């Protein structure tokens, strides 16, 4: 029984457990199968990366405060963060990896870096 490539249907030569005739076909097949999930993940990672860069630029040290309008003007998206830390007093810090922010009064945010 002759096996055929799952991508291009060409005859496969070689090992009996091969599914693809070449690396090109293997990559093309998996890229096609993962396309939808890859777009969502890529867009989410891009948003997280952008948020991280903004927090890093505005907080070069370990702590600072900044107006919400300044974050928004740079394109910060408050919907994308990687974790939430709740203090004993109930305050919630939102983190993008090791860079975090805490909502304060009057539309200000405390920016922190986790060590």
Write a structural description.
There is one protein chain. The chain is built from 3 helices and 5 strands. With 115 residues, it is of the alpha+beta class. The mean pLDDT is 93. It has a 5-stranded antiparallel β-sheet with strand order 1-5-4-3-2. The chain is rod-shaped, with a radius of gyration of 23 Å. It has a domain at 36-113.
Strand order of the largest sheet: 1-5-4-3-2
Q: For the report, how would you describe the main beta sheet?
A: 5 strands, antiparallel
The SS-based structural class is: alpha+beta
Shape: rod-shaped
How many helices? 3
**Cα separation of the termini:** 60 Å
Strand content: 15-25%
What is the helix fraction of residues, given as a range?
25-40%
* Computed Rg: 23 Å
What is the succession of H and E elements?
HHEHEEEE
Number of E-state strands = 5
Low-confidence stretches: none
Q: Which whole number gives the mean pLDDT?
A: 93
Provide a short characterization of the protein structure:
This protein has three helices and five strands, in the order ααβαββββ. The chain is an alpha+beta fold and 115 residues long. A hairpin with a 4-residue loop joins strand 4 and strand 5 (108-113).
Notable characteristics:
single chain; 115 residues; alpha+beta; 22% strand; rod-shaped
Set out the fold topology.
Layout: H1 23-33, H2 35-58, E1 63-67, H3 68-73, E2 83-86, E3 92-96, E4 99-103, E5 108-113
Antiparallel strand pairs: 1-5, 2-3, 3-4, 4-5
